Amino acid sequence: DQQVKQNSPSLSVQEGRISILNCDYTNSMFDYFLWYKKYPAEGPTFLISISSIKDKNEDGRFTVFLNKSAKHLSLHIVPSQPGDSAVYFCAARTGNTPLVFGKGTRLSVIA
Amino acid sequence: DARVTQTPRHKVTEMGQEVTMRCQPILGHNTVFWYRQTMMQGLELLAYFRNRAPLDDSGMPKDRFSAEMPDATLATLKIQPSEPRDSAVYFCASGPPGSRPDEQFFGPGTRLTVL
Q1: Among A49, A103, A104, whose Cβ lies nearest the Cβ of B102?
Q2: Of A85, A79, A38, which is closest to residue A60 (Cα–Cα)?
Q3: Other CB atoms closer than 10 Å to residue B102's CB: what's the count?
Q4: By the 8 A CB rule, do A81 and A62 touch?
Q5: Residue B61 has what DSSP assignment?
Q6: Which residues make beta-bridge pairs with A15?
Q7: pLDDT value for B40
Q8: Minimal-distance CA residue of chain A relative to B47
Q9: Cα atoms found within 13 Å of the Cα of residue A97, Cβ hemisphere only
């Protein structure tokens, strides 16, 4: 029973365009959401996060949107660059519990 | 610069053999996590420790997996006996005292193949 779902295993986007990665969750008690980025042969690294009291958080080219009523969050990358090609994991947690991760979405940015 | 290290990076073994994976958390970090990445399940939490004490190992198959922290600089994950379905990438992560969720740092992983 996946509490955090990334329903798109892969996504291809042209360089310079917007990449939108989606994540749905089932646990309404989640209060903190994160995106991690993973390159081949490396461990995941933290990218951006959002608290449940906000609906948007922006960091440079990366913006995370949270829609609590729909239990949905998305990561926008604008403009997309070839170096953004990686696997992106959505994660969530309640209080001090460990993070629950989705299965990941592989993003390919085509030059 | 401070990093989580994991050894070995790759391991190929035969079914039934014992496998030991090691993790050195970042110095000063007191929380250690073990995750397994597979295509089907994504990143699954296997176990985690705080101040060397196991807090949750409900994600581990108890009959064959065991996780320990012999000291603050070493965490181990053992599989005995190993099975082909254990083939995956195993990640260790650590976090500092009182860490926020974005302060969880991952190692490079151990890719395990069980034939």
Answers
A1: A49
A2: A79
A3: 17
A4: no
A5: -
A6: none
A7: 82
A8: A98
A9: 16
The DSSP 8-state label assigned to residue A83 in this structure reads G
Helix (H) / strand (E) element for A75: namely strand A72-77
Record the tokens describing residue A95, joined without a space.
């209080």
- Residues A50-102 have pLDDT tens digits of 999 999 999 999 999 999 999 999 999 999 999 999 999 999 999 878 899 99
Cross-chain Cβ contact B33/A98 below 8 Å: yes
Kindly report the number of other CB atoms within 10 A of residue B1's CB atom: 3
pLDDT in tens, B44-85: 999 999 999 999 888 898 899 999 999 999 999 999 999 999
Q: State how far the alpha carbon of B37 is from the alpha carbons of A6, A89, B82, B107, in Å.
A: 15, 11, 16, 13
Contact A34 B102 (CB under 8 A): yes
pLDDT for res B101: 67
Amino acid at A93: R
**Burial (0-12, 13-18, 19+ Cβ within 10 Å), A72:** middle
The mean pLDDT of chain A is 95
Of residues B76, B28, B36, the one with CA closest to residue A43: B36
In chain B, DSSP assigns E strands to 5-7, 10-13, 19-24, 31-38, 42-50, 53-56, 65-71, 74-79, 88-95, 105-106, 110-114
Q: How far apart are CA B85 and CA B93, in angstroms?
A: 22
Q: The tokens of A48 are what?
A: 């951006």
Q: Check residue A84 and report its DSSP letter.
A: G
* B14 Cα to chain A: minimum distance (Å): 23
